[in-house]
Amino acid sequence: MANKMTSMPNFKTYRTNVKIGNWNEEQHLEEHVRSNYLYKREKGELTAQRVDFLKHNILSPVELSVTTDDALHFGDVVMLVNIGTDGECFALGINAYIEHMTKVPSPGIKGPCGVSAGRNIQACVRTAFIITSVDGTPEGATLHYEQSFALKTTSGFAGDLYLTSDVQTFRKSALRSRLQEVSLDESESFPAWWKVVHFDPQERLEHEGLPVPANVNVVLFHCKTNQALAVLEHLILGTIYGNEYEVTAHTFLDTHRAEKSNNHWIMCTGDPAREGLLLLNRLESEGNCVSLPRDDGPSEYITCSVCNYRENRISELLR
User: Fold this and answer.
1) Measured between alpha carbons, how far is 284 from 130 in angstroms, rounded to an integer?
2) Beta-carbon neighbour count of residue 179 at 10 Å?
3) Quick check: 265 and 206 in contact, CB under 8 A?
C-alpha cells in the first residue's frame, strides 16, 4: 500500500473544467445572487443607493426664517448651534440611518430617531427645526422666556418629528454617556416640551416673560425633567455623516452654579441679505469671537462686539 501511495503522480488527476461536488447547486445560487442584485439595483434598494438617497434628501438646503425685530417667533425655522469651548460651532442635527426611512406613502424618516451635533452648520433638512406652539399660541407670535414650546423637524422628508426627551432609565439612556437621552419622535406630548431661559442665572428673573432674541446664547430646559440640552464634545459618535458628538439632556454647572458652555445654544435665523446664517456672517466679520461667560464669574463676559450687539438688543427690549 505504501508503494502505491508513493507511486501516485504529483499532479491533479482532473482538469479545471471538470464539475465536482455540488456544482449544480452552486451555479444556481450564483445566478440567484446575481439576479437579486440586478433587481435591487434597478429598484434602487442597494445599501449604497439607499445611503446616497438619504444623504441627498436630508442634506438638501433649507431657507431659515428671517427676523425683522431680532426676536424669535412661533413658526420660525431655525438652527440650534452650540459654540464649544474651543470656539468651534456644533449644529444639532438628525442622526438618521437607512433603517429610519419609510417608503409608503412617500419616502421619509420615521421615529424614533436619534440626534447628534456635527461641525457642518449648513442650513439643511437635517439641521432645521420649527418653533412650534404647545399652548395654543398662534403662529407668528413672539416666543418669550420661560414659555413652553416644541421643536419640530420640517415637513416632507424630515417627517415632522419632535425633539423629545424623558427620564433616564436603565433601559433608555444616551449611548455613550448613559445620561438622559434626546431623540426625535412623532408624538407632541409633554416630553417634547422645552423652554428658553437666559444663559446668565443672575439675569433670568429680570428677563422672564420678555421676548427671546434670535442669534444669542440661551439655555434650553426640558419641561418634564428640568434638564438642559447639552452637547458632549468628548464623546464621539460614528455616523454616516462623519464623526459627530453626542447630545443629551443634562445640566452641567460650574463652581458658580451657572450652566457651562455645553448647555449654551444659539437659535440661529437667516441673514436678511440671503447670505446664509446671520450668526456666522457676524462672527466672520467680527473676528470669530465668543459671547460666553468667563470661568471666574457668570456675569463677566469676554469683551467683543458680538457681546455688545447682544446686550444692546436686550437693552432695547427692556425699554
Assistant:
1) 26
2) 18
3) no
